[in-house]
Amino acid sequence: MVRVTASELAKLQTNIKNIRLISIIAHVDHGKTTLSDSLISSNGIISPRLAGTVRYLDYLEEEQDKLITMKSSSISLLHGIENEKYLINLIDSPGHIDFNSEVSTAVRVTDGSLIVVDVLEGVRVQTQAVIRQAWFEGVKLCLVINKIDRLFYELKMPPLEAYLKISIQIKIKIQIKNTNQNSNQNQNQNQNQNQNQNQNQNQNQNQNQNQNQNEENEEHFHPSKGNVIFASATDGWAFQIDTFAKIYSDKIGMNRKALNKILWGEFYFDPKSKKVLKKSQNLKPMFVQFVLDPIWHMYQAIHADEHDLQIVSLTAGKKKKNKSKKKHNKNSTEKNQNQNQNQNQNQIQNQNQKNSTEKNQNQKNSIKDKNFMRLENMVRKLGLKVSDRELKQKDRSLIVHSIFSKWLPISKAVLDVVVAKLPDPKTAQKTRIPKLWPGLFKQPEFANIAKSIENCDPNANDCLIFIAKVFSTSKTLISRVSQPTVFMTREEAIEKLEMRANQREEKEEKTTEIEKKNEIQINEENEDKTDQVFIGFSRIFCGTLKPGVRIHILSPRYDPNEPDNYHTESIIGDHDIYLLMGRELEHLPKISAGNVFGLGGNLVSSVLKSATLSTTTKILPFPTLTRNVTPIVQVAVEPENPLEMKKLIEGLKLLNRSDPSIKITVGDSGENVIIATGEVHLERCIKDLRKRFAKIEISTSAPIVPFRETIIFDSQSKKLDPVHISTPDNVCSFFISAKPLPLNIVKFLEVYEKNSKLRKSKRFRHVEFSEQFYNDLQNEFVKAGKNWEKEFENLWVFGPSQISTNILLNHLPDKSLLIEKPLQNSKSTPKNVEQNDEKSTQTMSKIQDLSHSIIAGFQLATRLGPLCEEPMTGVCFSIENISFNSDEQIISLEEELEKPLDHLGIFTGQVISTVKEGCLKAFLKHPARLVEPIYLCEIQTNSDVLGKLYGVLSRRRANVISEDLNESTMLFNITAMLPVEESFGFADEMRSKTSGFANPQLVFDHWEVLDIDPFWVPSTDDEIEEFGEQTNEQILSLNLARKLIEKVKKRKGLFIEEKIVKHGDKQRTLSKKK
Ligand SMILES: Nc1nc2c(ncn2[C@@H]2O[C@H](COP(=O)(O)OP(=O)(O)OP(=O)(O)O)[C@@H](O)[C@H]2O)c(=O)[nH]1
Ligand SMILES: [Mg+2]
What we know:
Blueprint (H helix, E strand, L loop, with lengths): L5 H7 L6 E8 L5 H10 L19 H6 L6 E9 L2 E9 L7 H10 L2 E7 L6 H12 L3 E7 L2 H6 L4 H12 L26 H18 L13 E5 L4 E3 L1 H11 L4 H7 L5 E3 L4 E3 L8 H48 L5 H43 L6 H4 L4 H12 L2 H12 L3 H12 L1 H5 L4 H8 L9 E11 L15 H21 L2 H13 L6 E11 L1 E2 L4 E5 L12 E5 L5 E5 L2 E4 L3 E2 L2 E5 L11 E4 L18 E7 L5 H14 L4 E4 L5 E5 L2 H15 L4 E3 L7 E4 L11 E4 L5 E9 L2 H11 L2 H5 L5 H18 L2 H6 L3 E5 L6 E5 L27 H26 L11 E12 L2 E4 H6 L7 H19 L3 E15 L3 H10 L3 E8 L4 E9 L6 H8 L7 E10 L10 H7 L4 H7 L1 H13 L17 H4 L1
Parallel strand pairs: 1-3, 1-4, 4-5, 5-6, 28-29
Antiparallel strand pairs: 2-3, 6-7, 8-9, 10-11, 10-19, 11-18, 12-17, 13-14, 13-19, 15-16, 15-18, 20-22, 20-23, 21-22, 24-31, 25-26, 26-29, 27-28, 29-30, 31-33, 31-34, 32-33
Helix pairs in contact: 2-15, 7-11, 9-10, 11-12, 21-22, 23-25, 27-29, 33-34
The structure holds guanosine-5'-triphosphate (GTP) and magnesium ion.
């Protein structure tokens, strides 16, 4: 097949109604990339026989090695239906949970998604997650039930059973929760926290009820709607109901449209009366009779002789054995007989053996011939042109492929559905954009551009583009002029892939230290040649982009009311627009509305992860992508050669730009920390940093797990007095108390924290958003009970800025002295201050200084908790009172404010540290607890290794929450909660202990209070009797919370009570010994 050229594809980019932008999404390993391969092969980019082996869109070395997709990649394909040509922009996405943010990228720039479901495994956690993502983005969906060949070949299911199995998988209920996916977070958090536990439980129940009300159950997919495709991506076939309706409509004399409605479901065709019945005891459903039976028979026919050939081989083997046995006996009994006689006998036996081998061979040939004839007959009846050579291939999978790809070609079935059922960009933008971008349609000043976007107008005055992610690629892959495709055989391709893997392994083993050093030098020399270039993965919503166009690059924080901030400008260069063809990029002279494309050049350097590009500044930036994964696994990195620090920093910057879900921060002790979504993601990031971005040798710390610190209620909590603490110069005293924050408020703040950027920035929607937040938060306080309802008025500030799940209350007798309305901005004037008075100005400045210092002290305390300097969560502090010591007299704040200005400068520093100390002391008056992050872990495995699997889970403190048996596969689905602390090496241990049968999927789920008192030591008589007097080491082995705290402290270089000299008495000097 001739490869479709870039210029042919470029011509189709202006015909909007014939464009489809689609993504393939699914759970890991359900066959997305294999399906993509089959579609790509229809354009002559790879040989159809190699589809599924090449995994063309998994072009990263890591992807080929690990056999999983790690990023979304796009390719443009041409598809013809009758005389119309369609441009299909296909994006393959990863199914592994660590790379979930790549799915967000894929669905944002596409209008339709194919959801692939493995017919045996069915809908899994990640399937639901990606469906939800697509649904929220307003993307239309079609279902691909894949791996149907497994039912026939692997499970040997008869067609009727296969039908029942498929019907189960099609009934996908799309559960859409309007709440954040992590809204169940912290369910276990602060279990003991609230005295009013029952009250909170009721609240939780109410919340769950509300949540259920928000769930929408919709049966969206139905074969007769034409949105379901049945496929085997590896065998290269697929069909929709209409494929068979077309075949049979003439044969059974029925209208094609009518057949479409009854080919699936409880409809039975009576061949005698030629009538369709709604009930029958003897007949098979029409889908089985007309669709599955013929496919099943074809599989049977292709593999039919395998069984017979096996029997022939087995009987031949048996005969051989018997003969050699007889021969052995004979020789032993007639040992001394005449040698000539023996020789003759041997000759006869050899001849017999030869004859029997020939006979077997003939038998085999006759079986094969018979089978070949049967197969040829079937193929002829179907009117397929399959050559004898193809039908006689040794590899059965190739015969399957040859027949099925002609009978039910996969690319035709899938792409026909895509064209018919998924919308073109104009239709999609009309419905999607108002939903995705409501702000744009509310303001009359944006009306023009909003209309152009809705109409996907290529001739609009303005041009609007969204860059969903930035990825890096090698300069060498840009605009490689289309080369003629070299078709290899399947064996050659496998050999080539194996050879590449072996070479890599050998190279890694052989690389000694010296070689490594050389390699670094070589890398340095070749830096220019192997340099990476950044490309924006973009979609154009209106207008036409050409070289020379001046464009504004607007960051997600851009506000059209302050157009100078978060905004840069650039001019599109001559070679900045690309057609994305997997790993290769082809230059395009221009690009018009309704297309996905690559954008290169200087302007990409001003884009961090995503951006809106517009020719006008009077526009809101496109809403940011919601990424459903939380980066949680951290490591500190440093260059092996300290002189290469600068290269590392540069490398980290590049890595940060090119990966949408990574976080890079500077740790407390100044180290550079990479935070990834999971182990697989982290491994890839480190490799990328080493090989592509920093190009230096890097050493990494042991994984760092973030913890949080909190307090819980106990019977004493209410009776506690506030902490009384004075500044070092004794001028000012504070009374500070602490208490646990109710669970619902913590949850609310956690969810809100995810949108913290919106809250902190001065964005266009700031006022509206802030008011809504204010009202919602007040509701949460009301829900928490009467005492908390009153506290809302006292709310002062949140902390620490990056977590914000702790609050500070203002309980001063006259709280208006410091700030009138706490939540609104701090510029508001206290009511006792008159504006124009000079004294008042001084008082005002004093108030502000004091207020800011108190807030800073609170922020510091909540950022570095007292247990191991991890951030606090769920703690409410209050400033109960402030008093001043003036001329040996204690005076109130009010009186102090009357005095002239004299306490600034050093005083504010003292207030900060005193408030911080006071908060920490107030915290420690309550029972303190460590809060740890928890993964949701999903594993599928068989019963043989279940025991070993549970062994690994229990060793790692996992809490199993469900175990379901999938009856058709006889595989168990196990769901467990696993502490992140215990997750390192978990997947490897699980695989090795279960011989590769259990492959866990981990995703961050929630924070959970570790309900162990870190200060516990045996103290009561009973405890001392049970545990005895314990050394620090023994306590650590008994007290997990303490052990974790000491581990964190050790890493941070904080003071720990550890005996370095273990046995002092044994360290006497020899001379003393004498
Ligand atoms: N029997 C059978 N195996 C299939 C089929 N489609 C894919 N596979 C196999 O399933 C495995 C996973 O296929 P991929 O295409 O890599 O799956 P994926 O969904 O892209 O996986 P990720 O991108 O890592 O999430 C491979 O071993 C494929 O050969 C099919 O139709 N039938
Ligand atoms: Mg894949």
